[in-house]
Write a structure and sequence with these properties.
This protein has 698 residues and is α+β, with helices and mostly antiparallel strands. The protein is built from 25 helices and 26 strands. The chain is elongated and about 115 Å long. Its EC number is 7.2.2.21.
Amino acid sequence: MNTRKKVILLSKTYRLENLSCTSCAAKFEQNIRNLPEAKHVELNFGASKLRIDGNVSIEELEQAGAFDHIRVYPEKERVPHVPFYKRRQTVETAISFVFLIAGIIISFQLGETHPLSIGLFGTSMLIGGYHMFATGLKNLSRLEFDMKTLMTIAIIGAVIIGEWREGAVVVFLFAISEALESFSMNKARQSIRSLMDLAPSRALIQRDGELIELETDDIRIGDVLIVKPGQKIAMDGNVLRGESSVNQAAITGESLPTAKQPGDEVFAGTMNEEGALEVTVTKRVEDTTIAKIIHLVEEAQAEKAPSQQFVDRFAKYYTPAIIATAFLVALIPGFVTGNWELWVYQGLAVLVVGCPCALVVSTPVAIVTAIGNAARQGVLIKGGIHLEETGRIQAVAFDKTGTLTKGYPELTDVLPEEGYTRSEVVKLAASVEAMSQHPLARAIVKQADELYPSERFQSLTGKGVHADIGGTRVRVGSLKWAEEHGFHIPEAALRLQENGKSAMAVFSGKHLFGVLGVADAIREESPAIIEALKDIGIHQTIMLTGDHPATAKAIAAEIGVTDIRAGLMPADKLSAVKELQAKYGRVAMVGDGINDAPALAASDIGIAMGGAGTDAALETADIALMADDLEKLPYTIRLSRKTLRIIKENIIFALALKILALLLIIPGWLTLWIAIFADMGATLLVILNALRLVKVQK
């Protein structure tokens, strides 16, 4: 069934095609608000998405956007991709160019005022500028002044004073400028389209003993998903049976595949590479991690950054000021000199050069491009305001456990006594600890290649554990417990405790076999990250942790953190962040998104580790590092700073070129050609400058 013919639509969210400029988007939104059945309208220009409450048909919505050929599709329907060279704007601009060239050739042979020349120039203007004229004249009748209104007045004026050739060139160049703007926004939106295309729309499901292929909308929680090698996983879930490696780059930005076995979590949109998997579905299609990422990226692209808010406010007063300036340029010198033709022409040129195209597009194209690029790299930035704020931070505070460290204990040191080897001490300790569920025990057992048979395992609170191995009672526990049994503890073992590690003696009634050191090991990349932050100008790095000061001090010294705050409860971390803000200015907080929630919320920028599958991380923080990858932090700051720089450059480019062109009024050198080149040149500059953000990599 053709969904376009339906009058009553169940879906209230739509995707849009041909939404190319912010002024068109604002007009489209206003037209929808004027529909009698439209209750609440929310238009997301960055994501090219519309949400509407009310019984409104697609035909009515497309009629509201007919002025710019806006097409409307239900959210679940795939928006057909039309190549740039096949788009209406591109085709019309190309045909307009053919007539323009023919007109220029004829005008040089027969003269610009010859009927054939006028006919060719007029045809070029109508084909290239028909939609602009229609919108401009309608706006003029309502006294609404936007870019198309200014251009329409200028072109009509050029025709009245006989400047057919220049009028046609201006229309053609303006059409190119519009096409480039449309191309740049579509390019910037491709990140969302690529995310939407990641997860398959159908999947093979095992339900009630039968294999059936279903639309993902019809898959229920608890269904078993069958994923063959080389297939994409369609839903979030847990592996029920099978082992494989899964490429999660689309979700987390990780370059290497991740091994999966029964019990492990998998995400929709990721690629199963080797073995077959059976996956128990844990989330509906609208709640999957990829669906949340798409939603948050779209919301981020809709949120106006401070720079964009400034430009919007500026443009509100800028356009009337340009119209007033053009009117005065035409009227006053014309009245004084009597040369009305020259000064009316100059006034029309002022209108053309004053078009705020470049100014209006300067910020959104940069914001949309940067957020899309970050999403592809596995960094979720939840709004333009957060993107800009990240570029301004002066200090970064880190939670320790799970952020600067791995978040789980590892065996870091083995100090065997004379007569024993490292592997013998580990094997003895692991054999005793094999029955224990303590995290420190698991860290030791994990390092043993094999175990001795043990029996009569017992745990003594505050001391340690013991078990019989080959008829000998072997104990693993605190150094104090070993001293109680008469053993002398070596200095090296005591230094382990001073360095914040858990030191455990391995001994029997007669022998001290050795001492083990267990600690929450630092991430291998942590020292390099701190150094990278210093290289980009973030010299204040602070560790906020609930751990003992000795542990915190040892880890900070190894990593290179400049400031330590230890023994903190969540409320203390919140106070510490406020203190740091008073001392350094803007502060970013990096944590796990759950126990650090108060500090993340209080900081200028909250950055959550491990966003993939962690709802709290996605909801609490301003930025989520999806792969639990701290290496993306310097990249994110560099991207934010470059975005800020490009936005400022764009605004300066747009205004400087226009001011330069307007100064040509003084000697009377400003022409329509120069005016449109100044406008188009500024638009092209800001678009190309913004698209440089695509190249920023981790």
